[in-house]
Amino acid sequence: MANAPIAGNDDAITNAFHTRYYDNPYQTWSNTFWMGCQILKCPLDLWVYQEIMFETKPDLIIETGTYKGGSAVFLASMFDAMARVAPEDRCPRRVLSIDIEEQDRPTHLRVRYHTGSSVADETLTLVKQIIAEYGAERIMVILDSDHTRDHVLKELDAYAPLVTPGCYMIVEDTNVNGHPAYEAFGPGPMEAVEAFLSKSDQFEQDRTREKYYMTFNPGGFLKRK
Ligand SMILES: C[S@@+](CC[C@H](N)C(=O)[O-])C[C@H]1O[C@@H](n2cnc3c(N)ncnc32)[C@H](O)[C@@H]1O
Question: What is the CATH number of the domain that holds 144?
Fold first, then answer.
C-alpha cells in the first residue's frame, strides 16, 4: 500500500475543494493550530510530513519561514514521538528554523531559531556551522519563506546541496499562482521548482506524497536521489 502511485489530483472535484478550502483562510489554513500555536499548513500535508520523517529519519530539519513557530514545534513534536516509538534510537534530532522577523515563539528543546534572511551569506554560513556542530548526517529542508519565484529559486540553489541522499526538500505553497489556488499571486514556488528541476538532476518529484489529493505542495515534494 505504501507509496502507491496516485491517479490525478488535479481533477475538478479536488480543485474545487482545494479552492474552497484555500479561499476561506479564516476557517481553514490560517485558523489551524499545533499545541496552541498557529501553523500555516494543511493538516493533510502535516500527516505526510510525519510519514516522511518516520521513513527517512532526518537528524536535522532546516525550515525557512518560521512565522509563529507552529511548524517548527510540530516537527519537533514528531521527533519526540519518534523517540518514544524507538527509545533505543538515541539520535538527538533537531529543527533549525529561519525567519527574517524576530518575534516571541514557543520554545522547544529540539528547536533553534535564527533571525535573518534565508539566502543571506551570514545565514548560510551559520547553517553550515550548525550542521557541523550537530554532526548532522541526514538533512531535510523545508522552504516556506518568501514565496516569490526568484526567492524560492535562490533558496533551492542554496539549500539543495545540503539535503542528503534519500531525504526530502519540500517546497511549500506550490499551489499558488493558480495551481489551483491564489491565481493572482504571480510566479511563485511552482515556477521556481520547474526552473530548478530544469537545471538539476539531483532531485525527483515524489508525487506519491500527494496521495490525499489536496496538497498545498503539488510537485513540491522533492526527494534527493
Ligand atoms: C508562510 S510563513 C511561514 C509559515 C510557517 N512555516 C508555518 O507553517 O506556520 C512565511 C514566513 O517567511 C518569513 N520570510 C519572508 N521572507 C523571508 C526571508 N527572506 N528569509 C526568511 N524568512 C522570510 C516571513 O517573515 C514569514 O514569517
Answer: 3.40.50.150
**2 in a structural domain:** no
Q: Which of 145, 147, 149 is the pocket-test mutation for ligand 1 (most atoms within 8 Å of CB)?
A: 145
Ligand 1 atom closest to the Cα of residue 67 is: 27
Ligand 1 centroid distance, CA of 99 (Å): 6
Domain range spanning residue 30?
12-83+92-102+109-224
pTM recorded for the entire structure = 0.97
Pocket test for ligand 1, best of 38, 75, 78, 99 (most atoms within 8 A of CB): 99
Q: 147 C-alpha vs ligand 1 centroid, how far in Å?
A: 9
> Looking at the 3D structure of the chain, how many domains does it have?
1
Question: Domain for residue 1, yes or no?
Answer: no
In a domain, 198, yes or no: yes
CB burial readout 122-158, b (16+ within 10 A) else e: ebbebbeebbeebebebbbbbbbbbbbbebbbbbbeb
Predicted confidence pLDDT, tens digits, the chain (225 residues):
555 545 556 789 999 999 999 999 999 999 999 999 999 999 999 999 999 999 999 999 999 999 999 999 999 999 999 999 988 988 899 999 999 999 999 999 999 999 999 999 999 999 999 999 999 999 999 999 999 999 999 999 999 999 999 999 999 999 999 999 999 999 999 999 999 999 999 999 999 999 999 999 999 999 999
C-alpha cell at 17: 475543494
Residue 6 placed within a domain: no
Name 78's Cβ contacts closer than 8 Å, sequence gap at least 6: 49, 50, 53, 54
